Amino acid sequence: MMNILKCALVLGSLNVFANAAAAQAKQIYVLPTLGGTQSMARDINEAGVICGDSANAQGESHAALWMNGEVIDLGIFPGGFYSSARAISNRGQVIGTSQLKTPEGELLSRPFLWDQGTIYQLPALPGADNASGDDINDNEVIVGTSGGLAVVWENRQPRSLGTLGGKYSYASAISSRNWIVGSSMTADYTWHAFLYRDGQMIDLGTLGGHSSYANDVNDRGQITGTIEMSDGRSRAFIWEDGTMRDVGVAHFGDAGQNGIQAVSSSGLAVGSGRFTPGLESAAIWSADGSVYDLGGLPGAVRSQAFGINNKGVVVGFSATDAEFQAVIWK
After folding, report:
1. Taking CA atoms, which of 122, 240, 258, 296 is between 20 and 30 Å from 273?
2. Number of neighbours of residue 101 by Cβ within 10 angstroms
3. Do the bridges between strand 258-263 and strand 243-246 make them parallel or antiparallel, or are there none, so unpaired?
């Protein structure tokens, strides 16, 4: 049964940034939980509906949906202890992953599709024990991972996308044009970001780094993610029209950790960066490449942005030493 709690948004700190493309004040609000103390917002659609996960009063983490001033428990498969909603389409369909328990007592993971109040289990690849769902577009094409391989579900049936020559791969995101992005192990055991389109997996390279990971793709064909340097530092990248660009070093320098998690079709991107040494903070990249600190709640030691819509509304989390809280910046 769905558990619905009234949403009492709590106003936090005020964050102001200005640029030619999107000059506006960003206020941070706390989203309510399902009764527990931990929560995380992971995606937002154009109607402003948010998905993620929240702990309930029993301490279990359940997939959650925030809409119309309420938080909704999307449930969990029988016997499981954990579920998480990863993405929501503009049709309101939610994709995520839930544990389930087999008749033999084994705990496995399977993707779920939540659609108009009903939750559907999606199959793993033949022979695979586990699978996870990570993104969905408005055509109900779903991407994720099964058996260590990047997978697309079309008509709710899985198909492997293969690899770039290595053993493993995963798919992170899909656009309305059915462009799929993720990362794959190569023959030399490094991970490279990929674009899968027209039946081909294309290696996007690493821009001189050790590895790269593509996290999102928008309807303009812009791909965003993170490059990992040989010394472990991370930098945000954007790939467009066949060219990968480092969009973190200009602001954060060689030593600053940063990465992009999501990009809207308007060209705004969000993720995190170290504006202050040792402190990770939610960040937004404007269309002109400028980077701004979104900040966190009072007392936060860390914040990160995971999703953004074309209106510039951002979701993610703000954390203290004791708890993670789902938040929205708008």
Report:
1. 240
2. 14
3. unpaired
The per-residue pLDDT for range 15-40, each reduced to its tens digit, is: 222 333 442 458 999 999 999 999 99
- Cα-flanking dihedrals φ and ψ of residue 239, to 5°? -115, 130
Q: Which amino acid makes up residue 116?
A: Q
pTM of the model: 0.91
Q: Cα dihedral sign for 233, 249, 226, 193?
A: negative
- CA-wise closest residue to 289 among 258, 253, 245: 245
User: CA-to-CA distance for 157 and 264, rounded, in angstroms?
Assistant: 28
Buried b (16+ CB within 10 A) or exposed e, 46-74: eeebbbbbbbbeeebbbbbbbbeeebbbb
**What is the pLDDT at residue 275?**
86
Main-chain dihedrals φ then ψ at residue 252, nearest 5 degrees = -90, -15
The pairing of strands 149-154 and 157-162 is: antiparallel
Amino acid in position 205 = G
In the block, which residue shows the tokens 């493993």? 168
87-109 residue pLDDT tens: 999 999 999 999 999 989 999 99
> Strand pairing partners for 308?
314
Distance in angstroms (rounded) separating the CA atoms of residues 276 and 259: 15
